[in-house]
Design a protein that fits this description.
Blueprint: E1 7-10, H1 12-18, H2 26-38, E2 43-48, H3 61-68, E3 75-79, H4 83-92, E4 96-102, H5 105-112, H6 116-131, E5 140-146, H7 159-172, E6 176-180, H8 188-202, E7 207-211, H9 219-228, E8 233-236, H10 256-265, H11 274-287, H12 296-300
The chain binds zinc ion.
């Protein structure tokens, strides 16, 4: 495989689909995952192991894991809300498991009905389960701190709380922590400060990824701030699928196509063929006719002469 500078993890099949009313048929999801992997996307979060009555949109996650695992070289990731979900994810054969831990305890109670201590106990149980597996079958385990940049219920979340949770996740046995701007509150300065603080707390190589939303239009500005702090993995969703119910016109996650374009233009290799990636939107448009798709590059088209002859300039 070619050298990759920045890893993009496509989270549309999970974060995008869980945020919309339409249910995408299983075959379309499979086609989407295969098509993105064929463009060079190295990691795809294919779903979440939650009870189907809570998220019917993601009821077929185990089947998607089975499908995605047949794709050579693709890292198959899934979200799990608790131990039970992790058990199912591991049974299905995921390569990476992420458990979201909401920095806002109010949000955590509202979302998963668990306090921080109860969530850390779940994390410990999952770590114990993973350690019963032979080393080659152990998934990577990330503790994703959600609402890390602010919460719609609690408002600002103190930095000290994030640092304490990051340490607790690492002590409980996670391989790494991630930071999620679940609410789209993050700004570039906040990104820089929090990433620096968390890296200092848990170690430079234990925070490598961010999960950003573009709710207030700062998604790519936040990526730029994060690149400056040495972040190397970004979640994004094709077409910014998901949207924001409170902000019409705002995409959900940062748009994969726009992110690839910016990184390309900076001379940072993602391993993704952007021209091919833009074609994958057709699968979404056809399978989800009632949903909005976002993205500036897909609307405006690639600049003339792209990529040959196009001026690539690394960010200073
Ligand atoms: Zn999200």
């Amino acid at each position: 495989m070619n050298r990759i500078d920045i890893e993009i993890s496509e989270v549309g099949p999970r974060d995008g689909l869980q945020s919309i009313k339409s249910i995408m048929p299983l075959d379309a999801k499979k086609a989407w995952i295969s098509a993105e992997a064929a463009c060079g996307v190295p990691e795809i979060e294919v779903g979440s192991f939650v009870p189907p009555r809570l998220l019917p949109q993601l009821a077929d996650t185990a089947e998607l894991v089975a499908h995605a695992r047949t794709i050579d070289g693709l890292v198959v990731a899934a979200l799990v809300p608790n131990f039970k979900g992790a058990e199912n994810a591991i049974k299905a054969g995921v390569h990476k498991v992420t458990i979201p831990l909401s920095a806002s305890e109010t949000h955590s109670m509202a979302n998963v009905n668990r306090t921080h201590n109860q969530m850390i106990d779940e994390v410990k149980k999952i770590v114990a389960l993973i350690r019963t597996l032979p080393p080659e079958r152990r998934p990577r385990f990330e503790g994703g701190i959600s609402t890390a940049f602010g919460c719609t219920l609690e408002g600002p979340v103190p930095e000290a709380k994030i640092l304490a949770l990051a340490s607790a996740l690492m002590e409980a046995g996670c391989d790494e922590v991630g930071l999620s701007d679940t609410t789209g509150y993050a700004t570039p300065g906040h990104i820089a400060r929090l990433v620096r603080a968390v890296k200092k707390e848990v170690g430079e190589d234990r925070l490598t990824g961010l999960h950003l939303h573009n709710t207030r239009g700062l998604g790519l500005a936040n990526v730029l701030a994060a690149l400056d702090q040495g972040i190397t993995t970004f979640d994004a969703s094709l077409g910014g699928l998901g949207g924001c119910p409170f902000a019409p016109g705002a995409s959900g996650n940062i748009v994969t196509e726009d992110l690839v374009f910016m990184l390309d233009a900076m001379g940072l290799k993602t391993g993704i063929n952007l021209e091919e990636l833009l074609k994958v939107r057709t699968i979404l448009a056809e399978a989800l006719p009632d949903e909005d798709l976002f993205g500036f590059v897909p609307e405006a088209g690639l600049p003339k002469g792209y990529p040959d002859g196009y001026v690539f300039q690394r960010h200073p």
